[in-house]
Design goal:
globular; single chain; D-Maltodextrin-Binding Protein, domain 2; 2 domains; Fructose-1,6-Bisphosphatase, Chain A, domain 1; about 280 residues; eight-stranded mixed sheet; alpha+beta; five-stranded mixed sheet
Length: about 280
């Protein structure tokens, strides 16, 4: 992998972190200056000032690097940004709507492909803590974005059975909760359940802070899925409902044809736990 890409991601993520973190730790400032509603997008997600401001940070930095030809973001869609060798797909602030309600589980995720559609790398950063993960030479490396120091995560062996597992599931909307019986076994058997979603949970899965993450009903658009490779490269199992492993290059083809294409992920820190979760989701 081009080491310059790693430097670009580090520098861009750090700039974004420094621009938004003070507001996340001073909610008065956040609510007065940043959480201004702009519009409701077609999928009923909200768009806020900070979504657009962060999108501009990423677009400007990626454009100035000279390494990219195109970029896709949740806020802007596909944009030509230069004549480089790579394309980048990113979400500048995942969970922005929740952030305005003080649920600050917010992160940025970015994934890079070469001009032929081959997967190159992904990165995720927690906007509150500055914990960043990036795939280097096929494995996930963790950093503290402010200091640049490497961090050690994911070395412990996670639980092998659902009864010992901390599971995050995304039955957030009323429409999704209508399908609760499909995952009733997960709710009854898991040690702990959290209902939430977003890039931050791929990061937490990679660090082994959680043991499983699934979105079996509502599904996720692929621009939110590519960063799951952070979890894959740390040893986690990530598949669709049929058990087929997530393939970023293959799914880029789907995404190019249809940006609204939905993926239904089931992920766990161990293959054994993943099998049990998958077996207990009814169709």
């Amino acid at each position: 992998m081009d080491k310059k890409l790693v430097q670009i991601i580090h520098a861009t993520f750090r700039k974004a972190f420094l621009s938004i973190n003070p507001a996340l730790t001073n909610y008065t400032e956040f609510s007065k200056k940043l959480a201004t509603h702009i519009k409701t997008k077609p999928d009923e997600n909200e768009q806020y000032n900070f979504d657009v401001a962060l999108d501009e940070v990423f677009n400007k930095e990626f454009s100035a690097s000279g390494h990219f030809s195109r970029a896709f973001s949740e806020e802007s869609g596909w944009q030509p940004i230069g004549h480089g060798r790579y394309i980048v797909i990113y979400d500048p602030f995942c969970n922005s709507t929740l952030a305005t309600k003080t649920f600050l589980d917010a992160a940025v995720g970015a994934s890079i492909f070469d001009e032929r559609g081959g997967f190159v790398t992904s990165a995720i950063m927690d906007y509150q803590t500055g914990l960043m993960a990036i795939i280097e030479d096929g494995r996930t490396i963790f950093y503290q974005i402010q200091s640049g120091d490497k961090m050690i995560f994911g070395s412990i062996t996670g639980p092998q059975i659902l009864a010992d597992a901390f599971i995050v599931i995304t039955l957030e909307s009323r429409r999704e909760r209508e399908h609760l019986p499909r995952v009733s076994k997960i709710f009854s058997d898991a040690k702990r359940i959290v209902i939430n979603s977003g890039h931050i949970y791929w990061l937490r899965l990679a660090t082994k802070m959680i043991d499983g993450y699934l979105d079996p009903v509502g599904g996720e658009p692929l621009y939110e899925m590519f960063a799951c490779t952070i979890a894959q490269a740390s040893g986690c199992t990530v598949t669709d409902l049929s058990g087929r492993p997530f393939d970023p290059a293959e799914n880029l083809i789907h995404f190019e044809k249809n940006p609204q294409y939905l993926y239904y992920p089931v992920a766990a820190t161990s293959a054994k736990l993943h099998r049990e979760i998958l077996q207990n989701i009814t169709r």
